[in-house]
Amino acid sequence: MHEIRMDSITHIVLGAAIGELMLGKKLGKKALLVGAVAQSLPDIDFVASFWLDTSGDVWAHRGITHSFLFVLLLTPLLAAVARRVYRSARMSVGEWCLFFGLQLFVHIFIDAFNAYGTGWFEPFNHTRISFNVLFVADPFYSCWLGFSFLALLILKKNAPSRKAWARMGLILSSVYLCYCLGNKWRIDTLVRRDLDRGSVHYDRYFSTPTPFNSWLWYVVAEDSNGYHTGYLSVFDHQPVSFRWQPRNDSLLAPVRARGDVSFLLRFAGGYYTIDRWKDTLQFNVLRFGEMGGWADPRARSVFHYFLDYPDDNKLVVQRGRFAGWDRQTLLGYIRRIRGN
């Protein structure tokens, strides 16, 4: 596996809440299961990992199964099957299409809010959509849906408060998402101000949240030869302190024609560096942050791929993200989030 699927639980509880609101009266508690399964279907692409090498799998994930085409093709198929399986629900094909279409669309929409990138327009356009608003697993987004899900499991199928619990989970998670959008706007405003006032010359930049929160953000500004990286909290009173690292693109020359390198270059979206780590050439994708970079200026990229040893790249997206973390590391991280 190339990624720890920490976001799968979010899709399950999100799908269950939608299932309760749309199908609860007709299917009872089965609506939770149908909703959870429907919401999770785009992640069927994990099957590709059994046949693809790591670089191909990284690119295939959130590709065609997270596209508008997939939603359009799968929705009527699922609707036809569900109408036969759940005849007692007495729902038309159109009603089932609305349910499955909404579930699938919500999945690919929410996935676009984190850093991985989602192939909305596959196979016609390979652009990956990434809003960089949520970390892949943000407990402050998922917890409300989790509380709702537990309540729906416990309550009897005819309990009058079931819909209220489902609405609560959806509304509070949506409110938190709007709060994250506000934090994103604030951070981007401050970053542009600091970049324009300082001596940093850049062509483009991005910001993305650090693990499990929406307050401390990782910032990367690109120039012609490399990248300026830094961290900014919404509670900071000082400008971003950037460090520069070269792209070292010339180191790719001996391997640029390889298939895995082609996938990695496409996946990186232009944000990558090449360096040597011990005895191997290493490809770093900057979009996923660094391993404790807010405290260690020499921190490695979370996503690093060993070019000289392709078979050693079993887990690359979250590789080593929490290596060496202990109580002191966690406390230091919380202090940095608070703006210290």
How do you describe this structure in short?
The chain is built from nine helices and seven strands, in the order αααααααββββαβββα.
Protein model, in words:
With 340 residues, the protein is α+β, with helices and mostly antiparallel strands. The protein folds into two domains: 8-179, no CATH class; 198-337, no CATH class. It is 44% helix and 14% strand. It has nine helices and seven strands, in the order H-H-H-H-H-H-H-E-E-E-E-H-E-E-E-H. It has helices at residues 8-27, 30-40, 54-60, 68-85, 93-111, 139-154, 162-197, 259-268, 327-337, and strands at 204-209, 216-222, 226-233, 243-246, 272-277, 280-290, 301-306. Strands 1-2-3-4 form a four-stranded antiparallel β-sheet, covered by helices on one side. Strands 5-6-7 form a three-stranded antiparallel β-sheet, with helices on one face. Strand 5 and strand 6 form a beta hairpin. The longest helix is centred in the middle third of the chain and has 36 residues, at 162-197. The protein is globular, with a radius of gyration of 22 Å. The two termini are 36 Å apart.
Chart the SSEs and their pairings.
Layout lengths: L7 H20 L2 H11 L13 H7 L7 H18 L7 H19 L27 H16 L7 H36 L6 E6 L6 E7 L3 E8 L9 E4 L12 H10 L3 E6 L2 E11 L10 E6 L20 H11 L3
Antiparallel strand pairs: 1-2, 2-3, 3-4, 5-6, 6-7
Helix pairs in contact: 1-2, 1-6, 1-7, 2-5, 3-8, 4-5, 6-7
Average predicted local confidence, pLDDT: 93
Number of domains: 2
Indicate the low-confidence ranges by residue numbers. none
Portion of residues in beta strands equals 5-15%
Biggest sheet descriptor: 4 strands, antiparallel
Helix content: 40-55%
The gross shape turns out to be globular
Gap from first CA to last CA: 36 Å
- Written as H for each helix and E for each strand, in order along the chain, the element string is HHHHHHHEEEEHEEEH
* Number of E-type strands: 7
Structural class: alpha+beta
How are strands sequenced across the largest beta sheet? 1-2-3-4
What's the Cα radius of gyration?
A: 22 Å
Number of helices: 9
